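#struct-help
A.M.: can someone run this one for me? Single chain, 183 residues.
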Amino acid sequence: MSNRKPSLAASPGVGAQPVSPFWEIPAFLIRRLHLISTAIVAEAVADAHLTMPQWAVLSHIGRTPDVDQSRLAEMTSFDKTSTGRIVDQLEAMGLVERRSNGVDRRAWMLRATDRADQLRRKLRPRAMASQERLLSCLTAKEQETFVAFLRRVVLANERYVRPGAGRRNASSRRKAAGPSDTP
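D.P.: on it. Structure tokens below:
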């Protein structure tokens, strides 16, 4: 990160845009890129009446038959409550079935229905094309390098992955937890 002052930045195909100091902060840029990538994927699956999180969960279930909801939450990086809600929605749409787990009666095994498999086959090329569109401003070599750098940063910081973390500030979490015995 540099100490440069905000300037006007021009991107290929885009007019000059004012750049705030935040455009030098990785967390800000990653958040913006998350918003952009979510919107691009959502656009690709919208005509199937799926949200981006529903598509992500359905894709994981389809690739990992008989996954349980806890493992699914880990795989998708959604919190368990959100994952359960999304599975409920997909089940109501006839895209996911819950099956009892013979080993642990508290856990449900999830499986994509035949209808979901057909839908995934139809939408997957569009979803993959959306990823290509997202990175189309980079050369093939830059795309490869960019993804390698993203993977390296993610793997180096996995210990911070706590789905749902950061939604409320620390004082709100303490209030929600109730009074404690410590001063």
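A.M.: thanks! Helices lie at 26-45, 52-63, 69-76, 80-92, 114-134, 140-156, 170-177.
D.P.: also worth noting: The domain at 21-132 is CATH 1.10.10.10 (Arc Repressor Mutant, subunit A).
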